[in-house]
Structure formats: C-alpha cells, structure tokens
Amino acid sequence: MQDKQFMKEMLTESAHAYKEGRMDRRTFLALCGASGIAMNAVLAGDAQAAADHVVMWNWGGQSVECHGSAIGEAFTAATGKGVKFDTSGPLEGKIKEMVDSGNVTADVADADLFNAVSLGPTGHLEPIDYSIVSKDKTLPGYALEFGVSVILYGYAFVYDTEAYGDNPPKDWKDFFDTANFPGTRALYKWANGSLEAALMADGVAGDALYPLDMERALNKIKSIKDDSIYWGSGSEVHSMVVNSEVTMAIVWQNRGRNMENDTDGRFKLVNNQAMAMPGAYIVPKGNPAGREAVMQFIATAQEVPAQLKLLDCLGMTPSNPAAFGEIPEDQQPYAITSAMNIDKIVYNDPTWWGENGGDAVNAFLEAIS
Amino acid sequence: MNAVARHIHPGWAIIAPLLVLVVALYLGPILNIMWLSVTDPEPGLGNYRKLFEGDTLLRIVWTTLRICVITTVFSVTLGYSIAYAMVHCHQRQKNYMLTLLLVSFWISILVRTFSWLMLLGRNGLVNNTLETLGLISAPIAFMRNELGVLIGMVHYMIPYAVLPLLVSMQSLDSRVMDASRNLGASGSQTFWRIYLPLTLPGIVASTLLVFILSLGFYVTPAVLGGGKVLMVAEYISVQLLVTLKWGTAAMLAALMLAGVLAMLWIMSRFMKLSAVFGGSTR
Questions:
Q1: How large is the average pLDDT for residues A221-226?
Q2: Inter-chain touch A369–B63, beta carbons under 8 Å
Q3: In sequence order, which residues have a C-beta less than 8 Å from that of residue B260 and are 6 or more positions away?
Q4: What is the ipTM of this complex?
Q5: Does B235 touch chain A (CB under 8 A)?
Q6: Are B248 and B129 within one domain?
Q7: Are B35 and B53 in the same domain?
Q8: Residue A337 belongs to some domain of the structure
Q9: Do A201 and A220 meet the contact criterion of CB atoms below 8 Å apart?
Q10: Cis peptide before A211 (omega within 30 of 0)
Q11: Which residues form a coiled coil (chain A) (predicted)?
Q12: pLDDT digits (tens, 9 = 90+) for A101-138
C-alpha cells in the first residue's frame, strides 16, 4: 500500500510537470503505463478544489467500476457533478495525515463506521448533514454524527467440504473446536471480527458482546494459536483458501461467493453468527467539493437502486432496510441482511471499536505473535 | 567580508546549497519523527517508558534482532562462498553467475516472496512431490512461520551480501596467496590466515548492509510469517495507519535509527569505515 501511495504522488507530480510543459506527453504516458495506474486515478489526486467533482477515496480494484456505476451515474444525473476516484485506500492514519497536512484531496472516504467514532471528535471529519442524508435509510444505531453506514460487510467463515464433508462446522464454536474439526484456520490479523468470533465460540450471546471481554477473547484465540495463521488483506485469505493452505477461514463475507466459485464449490460459506460490519462513508474535514455536494453523494448511495447495484457488483450488503426485501434470489445466501440470513447475524458496535480499537489491535497482535 | 572569509572557508559556499537541501529534506523530517516520539500523545518520555512497561515491545524488538542476526549470518556465509566461486572460476561461468545473481536482484520482492509460497507452501511443489513419492505423510510446514520468514529473507539478501564481497575479493593481489603457498603454508592455512583476513572489510561491509536492510523488512515477514512473526517495521506501520499511536511508531523508529548509528560507531572503533565502503585504507 505504501507503493501505491508513492506511485500516486509520483504520477501526480508528473501530471503537473506535463501540464506545465516540463515533461513531454510520451514520457508521462510511459510513466502511467509503467506504474500500471489508470489515468483517472492520477487525475483524481489532481482534482482538488474542482467543485464540479466529488473525489471518492476507496480501495481500488473492482470498486472503482462498481462505485461509478452504482452511485456515480445516478449522482451525475441528479446534480451534473462528476465522480473521480483515489484508490490508495483510506486507512485511518492516512485520513489523519491528509487533514493534518492541510492538503485535503478527497471528498468522501469508503471507510468503517468506527473510523467516524475515533476521527470525528478529534476534528478530522465533517459532520454528516442529516437534512440531506437520511437516518431512516440505514440500520438504527448506524447513523452517527460523523459517519453513516451505507453498506454492510461481514465476518463469516468458509470451510473445506473435503475435510469436513459429513459433519460440517455450523458456528463459531465449531470453528474454534480443533479437536472435532482438525486443520489449520485463518483469522483476521487486525483483531476485528476475530475477537467477537472467539467470544461467541466461548459462549457469549451475540447481543451481549460489548464491551468486549478482551482477556476471555484473547485466551480463546490463543487456545487455537498452533492451528492458526493470520491474514491481513482480502487477497491474502483468498489465496490461502484457493491453495488449500487452511481448512477453515474467517473471511469478509462479501468475498465468500468468489471463494466458492474459485474452488469449484470445495469451500463453502457459513453465514450463521456472521458479524455485520457497518461500512461507512465519512468526509475529511475541509473536503474540496464542499459539504452540500458530498452529502448529496452519500444520500444517492443510500437509495435502494444504488444499494442493490453495490450488492450485485461488489457483494456489499445493503444497509437501507427498504432494500432488504428486494435482494434477488441468487444473492440471498450471500447477503447478510437477506431474509435468509438476517435472523442469524450479530451486529458490530462501532462506538466500542472507535474508542478501544487501537488498544484491541495491539493486544491482539501481542497475543498472536 | 574579509572577516567572514577568515573564519569560514569559501569552499563552504559551493557545498552550501547541497547542505541546505540535505538538512531541509532529510534531517528535518528525521528530527520531526524524533520530536513526535517525545511529544505524542503527551510531552515526556512516556513512549520510551512503554518499552519497559510490558514485554510486548521488547519481544517485537527481540524477534526483529534475532531474525536479522540469523539472516545476516546465513546470507553472508552463503554470499561468501558464492563470491569466492565467482572470483575463482572461468570468465564465462562468472558471467553466467553474475547474470543470475543480478536477475534475482532485480525481481520484485513481492514476486520473490510469493514464489516461495508456491514452491514450499502447504500444497507447494516440494511438499506435493515429496508426498507423491511417499517420503512424507503430512506436508512440512516450511512457510507461514519463522522458518519461512528466514528462507525468504536470506534469499532476498544474498545478492546484497555477494556484491560487496565480490568487489573486495576481486581487488586482492593473488600473488600474496602464491607467496603464502610458496613459503610452505597449506591451502587451508592460506585461506584462514591470509585470504579471510584480507577480505574482512568486504565481510564487514556486507554484514552491515544485510543487517541494516533486514531491520526494515516488511513484506516478507508479513506474508511468509503467517501473521505470527511480528517485526518492528510491520508494527510501526500498524501504529501509523491503524491504531494511530504515532508516538509509539516514532519511538520505535528513533530506536532503530539510534541502533544503526551505534552499530556504525562501534564498527568505526575497530576499523576504518571508509575502507569498508570502498574508500582507500591509507
């Protein structure tokens, strides 16, 4: 990810040089080609202060195409403003750095709701304007002062049907049971979801998880440490599963369908006790396009058509209750708020994570390393 | 003007622009990091005290040092034999070896890291072959543990170890070794008592280079360690990007910097560093 940031800065610099005539066109295009970055990603970094655009800061890959078609098109049709993308990934530290440096180039970040809790009170975010954005178009408790949940993703698990064919694991208790379900597990390295899963495996009810009992959770994590490896990115766990390095893995549930397809159904997704994570749109303080434009953008993303397109394109589950009933048949097993799954899932508490996340991640790292 | 010129050599005027650049672009940010380590989240030495409050940070530093030392020992030893072979074979074979060395030097660290997973992973080429041949019943855990990190790091570091050693060995006067044999020393005596001491600056240079580069390793431990091998560089990155404990990150960075500088200083007590880095010994 550092490389990407470097590439972006290098290309933004050369875009300036090209504009001012210090660099010829061929060299600039060669640089773009060599670094494998699409031109629009570069120009997005350059699009600061462009009031006719909203710059969305997301994680690259498919999401550029999907955010463009699901939200961008409707937003442009309604407001006449375009959408550009910065794909370097809005990690909390990067948002803080961007605002602190006074050089804010993004309008809306595709982040987590707990980021809104930790970065909002420190003055790094614009408050959400609930006269434009609707509190009713997300789940109760997921419309906060500095961020609103637009989609849900989740922590669920996949298992190897060849390893556990006759007696498949059904819940987190089975996931942590290495005696009856031998094999290597993959857990998420940055604690999120792994801690909650451990507590549920230890017998804590899904609606009584918070505040997390860290000691209990970490003891459970440590109890399967010898049978665990840990992943840090979606692609990493994907390759662990596809290469059968593990027999069970906690995954981002929106990737479960791809994993089932890529292993020809050998691995199967279990959404029972999946933890719904509120993915949120948050606005860096002093964003270039101004408050009104970006709030309209967020409001557009809340609408049912946008929600369903994000599900279809990215596998992100709608958070607008009005969209729950319209989840198509083939997506039912994979969307965590579908009629098929909604009674089996538990909900993440962004406030606890926003306030305690840093310490929790460090305690988790200490336990697994 | 004359008064100024008497105290300050006019030569300084020529290098002044460079000095200003170095100070502004290099020392400035480093001082900023050090400053951060004593001011964030609150002024004082709290970040440094954290080192001794729990065993977490010390354990991470210890893991880092242990892995770096093992990596350095293996890389320099293997690098020494490779460099020795390169210097003492025919020019044509030497060119082949140099090409292979440089090719692996130029391949991206990510590619090299992931190829190890394909080779030695649970369902990798080696484990599959051994299982098919019936030599093992369960896959050997080469990867996703400390062994995996070491394999990946040693492999990455060997070219860095070879190049300084190669330069050092090539510049030796071979007549010295001939003289040693002529005076009755055996082959191994000549090696241990003449050849090895003469290549010592090269050994020190490659040791320093490999060790210092290993300290900052990030990708290989993160991927091949399976999340269980936590080294300082990855921890710093987490503190910067995820947990926002910039003070802790800055403290660890300052600690690494001080460690490297201290190492160079200790080395400089025993030998001329200019000789290590290719300057003249005289």
A1: 95
A2: yes
A3: B212, B215
A4: 0.84
A5: yes
A6: yes
A7: no
A8: no
A9: yes
A10: yes
A11: none
A12: 999 999 999 999 999 999 999 999 999 999 999 999 99
Spatial separation of the C-alpha atoms in residues A149 and A47, rounded to whole Å? 26
Q: Span B171-197, mean pLDDT?
A: 92
Alpha-carbon distance values, B84 to A18, A115, A200, B188 (Å):
49, 55, 59, 14
B60 touching A (Cβ < 8 Å): yes
In a domain, A336, yes or no: no
Cβ–Cβ contact B112 with A under 8 A: no
Cα end-to-end distance, chain A, whole Å: 22
How confident is the model over A230-251, as pLDDT tens digits? 999 888 999 999 999 999 999 9
Instruction: Considering only the C-alpha atoms of chain A, give the largest distance between any 2 of them, rounded to a whole number of Å.
Output: 68
Q: Which domain holds residue B34?
A: 1-39
Residue A312 has phi, psi (to 5 degrees) of: -65, -40
Residues of chain B contacting A236 with CB distance shorter than 8 Å: 223
Cβ distance A232 to B227 less than 8 Å, yes or no, reads: yes
Q: What is the pLDDT of residues A39-84, one digit of tens each?
A: 444 445 444 444 689 999 999 888 999 999 999 999 999 999 999 9
Same domain, A79 and A107: yes
Query: CA-CA distance, B187 to B173, in Å (whole number)?
Result: 16
Q: How many domains does chain A have?
A: 2
CATH number at residue B102: 1.10.3720.10
What residue numbers bound the domain in which A307 lies? 2-152+278-331
Q: In this structure, are A268 and A352 located in the same domain? A: yes
A225 and A353, same domain (yes or no): yes
By Cβ distance, the residue of B56, B60, B242 closest to A91 is B242
Same domain, B121 and B183: yes
Query: Which helix (DSSP H) or strand (DSSP E) does residue A153 occupy?
Result: strand A147-160
Cα–Cα distance measured from residue A311 to residue A177, given in angstroms and rounded to the nearest whole number: 32
The shortest C-alpha distance from B127 to chain A (Å) reads 12
- A367 contact B CB<8A: no
Q: Is B229 on the interface with A (CB under 8 A)?
A: yes
One domain for residues A18 and A147: yes
Q: Is residue B281 part of a domain?
A: no
Nearest to A281 by CA among A151, A86, A138: A151
- The reply to whether residue B228 touches residue A369, judged by beta carbons under 8 angstroms, is yes
CA distance A295 to chain B (A): 26
Whether A313 and A251 map to the same domain: the answer is no
A348 with A323, same domain: the answer is no
Examine the domain organization and report whether A144 and A166 are in the same domain: no
Q: What percentage of chain A exceeds 70 in pLDDT? A: 88
* Total domains present in chain B: 2
Looking at the fold, whether A146 and A263 belong to one and the same domain comes out as no
Residues B170 and B242 in one domain: yes
Question: Binning pLDDT at 50, 70 and 90, where does residue A318 land?
Answer: very high
Q: Confirm or reject contact between B121 and chain A (CB < 8 A).
A: yes
Structural domain contains residue B282: no
**pLDDT per residue as tens digits for the range A154-204:** 999 999 999 998 899 999 999 999 999 999 999 999 999 999 999 999 999
Q: Which residues pair with A228 in a beta bridge?
A: A185
The verdict on residue B219 lying in a domain is yes
The CATH code of the domain that includes A97 is 3.40.190.10
Inside any domain, residue B55: yes
Q: What is the pLDDT of residues B45-97, one digit of tens each?
A: 888 988 888 888 999 999 999 999 999 999 999 999 999 999 999 999 999 99
